[in-house]
Design goal:
Blueprint lengths: L8 H14 L5 E2 L11 H12 L12 H15 L8 E4 L2 H12 L5 E6 L3 H9 L3 E6 L10 H7 L4 E7 L11 H12 L5 E5 L25 E6 L12 E4 L2 H14 L5 H12 L3 H21 L15 E2 L10 E2 L2 E2 L3 H12 L1 E2 L1 E2 L9 E4 L4 H15 L4
Parallel strand pairs: 1-12, 3-4, 3-5, 5-6, 6-7
Antiparallel strand pairs: 2-8, 7-8, 9-14, 10-11, 13-14
């Protein structure tokens, strides 16, 4: 079983960076997708209150009723989507939410379509669930988004599931309402296919249209599994809160699976979640403003690298430049054969951690996170520029 999937490359690079730090080396982390902001005070106060009120016992497997009500309210307020509490399951992070769904729907002989580039764990979780992965490649020329025609060509009688993220990790691509409508029209013709819509970066959106969910199309809503969580939009990565919104049959299946793995999600984190989702989003919007400032600066800095081509992200907090022009270059005895080599070169020589595009199904790219403060970002790009100029 273990030979069927790999360690997440994002976690691997973070681990290698920590190893260098333990040797006293100053490593700037542009690898992990973790906001450098602290959890807002009002959310932390809600957690403290929950401790004082003795929320220290086992929780219902699908989540506290009040937490699920908060998700229902949030989906109505922010997304104009109608769900009931029995259509919500709270999990220990959005990753567990995705795993629950894939374990419920995939089995040997069933296919899942995953557009490239994709978040590193999609393909690996699908393999754990026994599914066969069908990749659908995209490129910078189409802003890393698939077309309805490409989707239709990828569908076979064995297709059971489709998963994508918008905003996308790693590319920052954001699907518009019209683009989602085009995909929904294809799914209308294939009623046996379920759609996982990963919306974890929902609030980190730089488009004028704002976030759009494929669950808004009533003709396919019953087959959409909306996945979200609090890690990115609320700077709550360590709280481990994710959730799905889906039809009751899917939710019951996920509840059954989760009941055998972790049972109910942390009580304190769930009580804080109620406050996070129902209070005003001022802290979230302020954080996004800072991300937008960083994005602008990162795009200026990346243009100084002559052999990197980069589309501007419309959401999330990553840039995903195409770096294949560096392949075949060297510095002394160090050869750059692929994006993994380039990442290791930047880590060992510039002491900046990044993630190779191979992990995302795009071997010609590298992902840099700008979920770090501006002084660190500018220092990181200064170091990288100096080391990249040594390649020839």
């Amino acid at each position: 079983m273990l030979s069927r999937f790999n360690e997440p490359e994002t976690l691997k690079m973070a681990r290698l960076g920590r190893a260098l730090r333990e040797r006293g080396i100053d490593v700037i982390d542009l690898s992990l997708g973790e906001p450098d902001f602290n959890t807002p005070l009002h959310i932390k106060e809600a957690a403290k209150k929950a401790i004082d009120e003795n929320y220290s016992h086992y929780t219902p497997v699908p989540g506290f009723l009040e937490t699920r009500k908060a998700v229902v309210e949030k989906l109505k307020r922010d997304n104009h989507l109608d769900y009931t509490t029995d259509q919500i399951v709270i999990s220990t992070g959005a990753k567990q939410s995705i795993a629950n769904v894939m374990l419920a729907l995939l089995e040997p002989g069933k296919e899942i379509i995953i557009p490239r580039p994709y978040w590193v764990s999609y393909s690996e979780i699908a393999k754990v669930a026994g599914g066969e992965v069908v990749y659908l490649s995209t490129g910078a020329e189409q802003n890393y988004k698939i077309t309805p025609e490409e989707l239709e060509k990828a569908i076979t009688p064995k297709t059971k599931l489709f998963i994508f993220s918008s905003p996308c990790n790693p590319s920052g691509a954001v699907y518009s309402k019209d683009e989602l409508a085009g995909l929904a029209a294809i799914f209308e013709k294939h009623p046996d296919i379920y759609i996982i819509s990963d919306e974890i970066y929902e609030y980190i959106n730089y488009t004028s249209e704002g976030h759009q969910s494929i669950a808004q199309f009533d003709t396919i809503k019953d087959r959409v599994i909306l996945v979200n969580g609090l890690s990115k939009g609320f700077a709550m990565t360590g709280w481990r809160i994710g959730y799905i919104a889906a039809n009751t049959e899917i939710c019951k299946a996920c509840e059954k699976i989760q009941g055998q793995f972790t049972s109910g999600t942390n009580a304190i984190a769930q009580r804080a979640t109620i406050t996070a989702l129902t209070d005003p989003l001022d802290a979230t919007y302020e954080m996004v403003k800072q991300f937008e400032v960083r994005k602008k600066r990162v795009m200026e800095l990346i243009r100084e690298f002559p052999f990197m081509d980069c589309t501007e992200p419309k959401g999330a907090f990553y840039i995903f430049p195409e770096v294949s022009k560096y392949f075949g270059m060297k510095n002394g005895d160090t050869y750059i054969n692929d994006s993994t080599d380039l990442c290791m070169y930047l880590l060992n020589e510039a002491h900046v951690s990044s993630v190779a595009g191979t992990a995302f199904g795009a071997p010609g790219n590298i992902r840099f996170s700008f979920a770090n403060n501006l002084p660190n970002i500018e220092e990181a790009f200064k170091r990288m520029k100096a080391q990249l100029e040594k390649l020839s």
